[in-house]
Structures are given as structure tokens and as C-alpha cells.
Write a structure and sequence with these properties.
This protein is globular. The chain is mostly helical and 457 residues long. The chain starts with a helix and ends with a helix. The protein has 22 helices and no strands.
């Protein structure tokens, strides 16, 4: 089936669908991550003033990052909900739903009055909208990855699955870029008072574009084959947890050195470099983060492509090892007091991340059969949000407060790298496997006869 799929992908009609699927996935994830990262930047720079104004600067930042964390806790819930229906009725319908949910939640944050007007109700509603954001992005990733990967040539799964990953970089560029522009035009006081709301409201324009593109995409041929042969599952969440618990847990731990340092770089450092000890401007840090994201536009697909030529897990492990060392170099440069060194550190901070993020989508998705892939890949990917990305900025803030040095955060990054490398040793490299054939996954579970019966539909 993999050969047939590759041949189908090379036909003129399907080549057009492959391109459309890659574009639709990338644009959709761009919009989702634009919305998600807006909240991260605002949580570091604005929300302590708007929604937690009666707290000390430290406690206000803690409360703001705690509200940020809530969205991460909600992500596995979104993965379970949309994974269930994505493996039952298809990838496309779920991606349209997640896009609408994310866009409306973000726009409502843009019009939400602050604590000065609505008191405690304001941060409570903010947290509720953040939960909806988390559920939406939790369901988005798996569908976007599969829409691109299952349509493309199966010999290039690493590259095809890396295209939607670019949505992260583009989302950062758009969100931080607009925050920097409005902050620069209005000045910090006006920006905190009301200017930050404009980028949130612009989400509605991006959602309209994304919906127009996604509606035109057909269902993936792999899932269409699952439907044709009546292999869809009644309870994909329960079944994937029963059959592939090891792959789910290891996929989550695999992300420790990718996701946790990513949110250190893109959220925590915004507050770290603009605090009383460093005094860099909002725009200095935002622009440096934009440059880092721009470099990812090249490096993410490059390492995705390289993973089709080399062993995916080896590339990933190298990226994790570099991350473990880079944390000490990174905070050394940030604390150097030399502006151009700080800017270089900000600009190249995401290169080790790209080494992992490029091949990561295919590594995770390849560990699950087509009929359970949306659910399994989504759960593995999003469970990391609870232990890796979600608490990252919060823990880093506490570490800095308690130890008084950024090197405490460097140790945190090193530990995450060691966890990732250990997890990677337990996963199989499926880069050369036929993932369209459920038989590929038969040896992964207990008794062969039992598993064959389970995969026969």
C-alpha cells in the first residue's frame, strides 16, 4: 500500500492535492499558533498589568504564567476529543472545527475587559478562554500533520510532516511582529492599556483565510482506505491507550528537550530580559525572537528532509544533546550585558529546537497505525504539554526567584535533554516502514493472533 500511495501521489491530480494539503496544513497551523503565541507574549508583557494588577510584579507574573499553563493542561483533552472523531469521521472536519474554536476564543480575549472593570471575573473568563485555546490547538496538531503526511509521498514523510511544523515559526513571526509593531507605534503605556488587543482581534481575518483553504481539501487517501475497508474504531482513545501505551508515554517524554526549552526561549525570556536586572526593551526581545523563528523557516524542513535520508531518531538525539549544552551558553550570553551578544543568543536560540521539531512529527505519527494515528499521535504529542511546555515558564520563573541566576534554568534544560535521550532509546525508527499497512504494527502488541484480529475491522 505504501508503494501505491507513492504512485498515487505522483499522479497529476494527486500532486495538486498533495500541494494543497501541505499548504492547508501549514496555513492552518500558522493561524492556530499565531493565536496561541499571542497569549504567551501577552502573558509575559501585558497580562500581569491588565488582569493581575493588584499583585506584586513577581506574583502577577506567576499568576499570568499560571493562566498560560492552563492552556497546556487542556491540550491533551483536545487531542482526545478531536482524535476520537478524527479517527472516526476524518481529518478534514476536525481541522475546520479546531480553527473556528481557536479564532473565536482569541478574538474574545481581545475584547475582554481587564480586572479594573470586571474585577475577579476578568481573569476567570481569561482562564476559560485559554482552556478553549488549549483544546483547539490540542486537536489541531494531529490532524494537520496527518493531512500533509498521509497525502504525500511516503518516502518523504519526514519532509511532508515538517511543513505543518512551520506554522509554529510563522505564528511566532506574525504574533511577535504585530506585538512589536503596535508597541513601537503606540509606546508601552498605550500598548498595555489597549494596543495589545488589536493583534488578538486580527485573528478573525486569519481564520477566514484558513477556513477558505481548508474547505477545499479532500480527505487523505490513507484514511479513505480505512473507511472503505470498514476499519474505523468505535472508541479510538480507549483502544490506542490499551494497545500503544508505551508509544504514547515515550512520545510525550521525547518532547521534553524540544518543547520545554522552546517556551523558555519564546515566553519566559520575554520577562527575563525586560526585568529590572536587564532592562532591555520589549521590542529588542520581540525582534530577536522573530529572527530565531525566521531561521526555523529554513531549518525545520531541512532537518525533516534530512530525516528521510538518515536515521530520524539519531538526528533527534543529536538535537537533544545540543540543547542540553546550549542552555548554559544561552544564559551566559543573555547575562553578558553586551547587547549584540544577547541579540545573537536570541536569534540562534531555536536552531537546536529545529533539529528536533523537523523530524519530530513523523517520528511520533509513524508509531501508530492509520486507524488510530490521529488519536495516538495527538495524545503523545499533547501530553508533553503538561510536563514540558506548560510549566516551563512558571518553573523557570520560580527557579530564577529562588536561585537568582539563569543558570538554574540551564540545569532545567539539561535535565530535559537527558529525559528525551532516554525516551528516544525506547522508540522504534519507522522511517522505512510501510505505515499504510496495519500489519507493520502487529508485532508491537502482545499476541500476534489477537492483534491481527483487532486490526481486521
Amino acid at each position: 500500500m505504501a508503494t501505491g500511495n507513492s504512485a498515487a501521489a505522483s499522479s497529476p491530480g494527486n500532486k495538486s492535492q498533495v500541494r494543497k494539503a501541505a499548504i492547508a496544513s501549514t496555513i492552518g497551523t500558522t493561524i492556530e499558533w499565531y493565536d496561541y503565541f499571542l497569549y504567551g507574549a501577552a502573558a509575559a508583557l501585558v497580562f500581569p498589568h491588565v488582569f493581575f494588577p493588584h499583585m506584586s510584579p513577581y506574583l502577577g507574573l506567576i499568576a499570568s504564567f499560571a493562566s498560560y499553563f492552563v492552556g497546556f493542561v487542556a491540550r491533551p483533552i483536545g487531542a482526545a476529543i478531536f482524535g476520537h472523531w478524527g479517527d472516526r469521521i476524518g481529518r478534514k472536519a476536525m481541522l475546520i472545527t479546531t480553527l473556528l474554536m481557536m479564532g473565536l476564543s482569541t478574538a474574545l480575549i481581545g475584547v475582554l475587559p481587564g480586572a479594573g472593570s470586571w474585577g475577579d471575573a476578568a481573569p476567570a473568563i481569561l482562564i476559560l478562554l485559554r482552556v478553549l485555546q488549549g483544546i483547539a490547538v490540542g486537536g489541531e496538531w494531529g490532524g494537520s500533520i496527518l493531512l500533509s503526511m498521509e497525502w504525500g509521498n511516503q518516502k518523504r514523510r519526514g519532509l511532508m510532516a515538517s511543513w505543518p511544523q512551520l506554522g509554529v515559526a510563522i505564528g511566532i513571526i506574525l504574533s511577535t511582529g504585530l506585538m512589536a509593531i503596535f508597541n513601537g507605534i503606540m509606546g508601552t503605556d498605550a500598548f498595555i492599556a489597549w494596543g495589545w488587543r488589536i493583534p488578538f482581534l486580527l485573528s478573525l481575518v486569519l481564520v477566514a483565510i484558513g477556513l477558505y483553504i481548508r474547505i477545499k481539501i479532500m480527505e487523505t487517501p490513507m484514511f479513505a482506505e480505512v473507511v472503505r475497508t470498514n476499519k474505523t474504531r468505535k472508541a479510538p482513545v480507549l483502544e490506542v491507550i490499551r494497545r500503544y501505551p508505551k508509544e504514547i508515554v515515550l512520545s510525550a517524554l521525547l518532547r521534553m528537550s524540544e518543547q520545554m526549552p522552546f517556551y523558555i526561549v519564546t515566553a519566559f525570556v520575554l520577562s527575563y530580559l525586560t526585568n529590572k536586572d536587564h532592562h532591555y526593551s520589549y521590542n529588542f526581545v520581540l525582534i530577536g525572537t522573530m529572527v530565531a523563528a525566521a531561521l526555523e523557516l529554513f531549518f525545520v524542513p531541512y532537518f525533516g528532509h534530512l530525516s528521510d535520508k538518515k536515521n530520524r531518531l539519531r538526528i533527534y538525539q543529536l538535537g537533544a544533546a545540543i540543547t542540553g549544552v546550549w542552555g548554559f551558553v544561552y544564559f551566559g550570553l543573555l547575562d553578558s550585558g553586551v547587547a549584540w551578544l544577547v541579540f545573537i543568543a536570541l536569534s540562534v536560540a531555536l536552531v537546536p529546537h529545529a533539529m528536533q521539531y523537523g523530524p519530530q512529527a513523523s517520528i511520533i505519527a509513524e508509531n501508530f497505525p492509520t486507524e488510530l494515528r490521529y488519536t495516538g499521535a495527538g495524545l503523545g504529542y499533547q501530553l508533553a504539554s503538561i510536563v514540558a511546555g506548560g510549566p516551563a515558564a512558571l518553573i523557570a520563573t520560580v527557579l530564577l526567584h529562588n536561585f537568582g541566576t539563569g543558570y538554574a534554568v540551564s540545569v532545567y534544560m539539561l535535565v530535559s535533554a537527558l529525559i528525551t535521550i532516554a525516551a528516544s532509546l525506547g522508540l522504534k525508527d519507522h522511517s522505512k516502514s510501510d505505515i499504510a499497512d496495519s500489519g507493520t504494527y502487529t508485532p508491537r502488541v502482545g499476541k500476534v493472533g489477537t492483534d491481527r484480529k483487532a486490526t481486521s475491522g
